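Q: I have 884 residues here and want to know how they pack in 3D. Can you give me a structure?
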Amino acid sequence: MSSIPTRVGDFLTTYTKTVILVVLVMTVAIGAGMSQVEQQSDTEQFESDSPAADAQAYIEENLTIDDGNNEALVQVIQRGENVLTKESVLESLSLQAEMQERETIRRTFTDERPVFGYANVIGTAAVRAGQPEGEASEQPPTLAEQRAAVEELDQEQLEAIVTDVFGQDGNPLALSFMPASYEPGSTTAQAGSTIVRQSLDTEVQDPNSFPEDLTQAQLEIREITQERSTQYSIFGFGILNDEISQSLGDSGALVGPLALLFVVVALTVAYRDVLDIILGVVGIIGVLVWTFGFMGWANISFNQLLLSVPVLLIGLSIDYAIHVFMRYREQRGAGEDDIGIRRSMSLALAGVGAALVWVTVTAAIGFLANLTSPIGPLQDFGIVSSVGVVAALVIFGALMPAVKIELDGFLEARGIDRQKRAFGTGGSTFGRLLTGGVAAARRFPVAVVVFAILLSLAGGYGATQVDTSFDETDFLADSPPEWTESLPGPMAPGTYQINEDLEFIGENYQQEDNEAEVLIRGDVTNEQTLRWLAQASEQVGGLETLFVGPNGPDISSPLSVMERTAARGAEAAAIPAGERTDQENALAEFAGAYDQATGEDGVPEGNVEELYDLLLTANPDASEFIHNENGQYRAIRLQFGVTGNARIGDIADDNRDVSETIVTASGGSLTATPAGDQVIFDKVQQDLLDTVIQGLLITLVAVFLFLSIAYKLTGNPASLGFVTLVPVALAVTWILGSMWLLEIPFNTLTGTITSLTVGLGIAYSIHISSRYELELRRRGDVWEAMETTVTGTGGALLGSAATTVGGFGTLAIAILPILQQFGIITGLTIIYAFLASVFVLPSLLVLWTRYLGPSGYFPEDESSEETVPGGDEQPAADAEQDAS
């Protein structure tokens, strides 16, 4: 009875027209889902459930004031040697005038003071200084009035105004427009900020739903600044989201065609046949149609992580195609022309079919290991990649062989010879290079294995040093190189500037929403609560990650709100009681209670609940830091700004330390949960690392069990599964060590590298082991079997590796740094997997055959050469037909 692979091969090569029709119908049906694929580019999709995320949600729901005046802010930072000169101030006011003149920009403005910055502070002061005493208007001066007043100032007058408005005793709002390095009262500054306020109908929760008109206005503001001689840095969420979204499309448009071009070139070298090249490209398109169609039907959005999937599937598809086509060529060139095209393809599919199925299953296992990750896009990556691998098996294991049989038969019937030599065979240069692994296995197999293990030990050390990174800036593109400007329109990338702007703004200004949060719950009315809060605030003041601007440390809490409200209350108390408003009375009452409760150290103690009541009455904005629900105080909040260039891990660690201090000081009567984007992103980083470790362990164990069972069921010792897996495990340590040497961290893309290494690398090992086992049956000699394996299958592997490395290598020219890193590290993964399978695995197989495998295959052995692995005796000629 023939084996299952033989029967399947016979069926596929007998009913070719039926196979073609069925697969094409499936392709059309599945591909119909492509139109439903949507794009998602925000970083929130990578977040998982955590105490920090829950605390952040609580803060947003209960400790955020929704006054209906939703705004989007744009930071316009003017840069130069000194922006406090008359020319620079007039330049800033001139820019504001141009923004006001643009209808597309002006119509997005808020009703009240939509544009205001450091130059307006100076301009307003200049107008006031020029007015007669007692005639100052309560209305803010117009932009034209500010410009005229500044133009009238001489150097001494300008410096006097600057010293006054930006002095230590000046308005804190004015100093907020100056960089962190600015010394209050100084007449020189290297940057000055202007804030543009845009009106939002509702608060935007999903970055993808940010209003298009606001985004276009922000882009137009940036365009205006780029046309000026003065340097500006711009930040707005519209620009940020636009660049993240645009980078996906631009990267795909740049990398996709180049990857396809490289594949065509590589296939030209491997196939040297136009028809086979066309079949390969058409098959790749079919695999991508299946994959993206599935995404549409499964409602999986296309994100940054999935950008690597098309390149991955191109590599895998070519791997499948080369092995099928090259084995078919080997069969046709084996001196058996009389068996015909269909029989040659049937034998090829029977010989390589089991290996392809095993490759598909093991690759899918590697990708599906990402389902253990709590990160949604990583789960999607695992599912989509697995579906793509199955699609590659169907397209190149059924459709393309059937099409090739029909086309070759059609052409040969008309006198066109379709016999081609398999790549790496026939004594070619590549074939001689590939036999190096066989020579090493014959002479010193133990030394080869020991050397590989030593490399792995070094790589294992490097693996423990690899950093983990997750940041919004990971998804921001660098400025494209100049050579991309000459590319055709669809391939030419757009303008990318926000990455550089963010770096400057992060070093010099407090960015919007760039704060650390601590949510404090429990007995928040305890008389010592404010003292514990003061201790935590003092600790925050010493943190290196704390943002310290010209106004001092950016720390906010119920205590700081009380201090500011008490200061306003003291001013209200100076007003005669009969002349105060209700609000001023409330302020004065709070100030009195605050002074009475404050101890020698400046911290109130005593009836904290009463202070909360009076504070919320005098200053309703205090509800951002004190939550009262149904008459009971549930929570308070500590917030502090952090520097934009600090590491996320450092900020998260500092936040946790502050939270722990509060819990410890309160003796457990309070709970303190660190929150904020940095803590949430740090959780993502930890999830990434956990995914790397868990995914690797699960994949290795699952693949080992599968291969052991598969080899056992096909009449081989289960130990062959372990031997096949060893080179892949070695390659994993090599690639992790390389990441350390190249300073490439685990991020949302490179975090998949271990499952990719196993998923892709196991294919090379399976093809070598399966072909070796088959040739061992056929030839009865270990060295003949090994040489045939390495020159035949090894040649196909070389062609496959070259195309896959080239495909992923094109990612190295992507405009996204995260894609560049992924392309480099994946290309190295393929190289390592290929080298391990061709140069290390032969030595492992030789040692396995000698000590664990069947006997009788070494020339010096006395036993029969016809012994089949597993102990059964069978003629070598018949083994070819029954091999699985």
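Q: Anything worth noting?
A: The longest strand covers residues 632-641. Residues 4-36+243-471+682-882 form a domain with the Multidrug efflux transporter AcrB transmembrane fold fold (CATH 1.20.1640.10).
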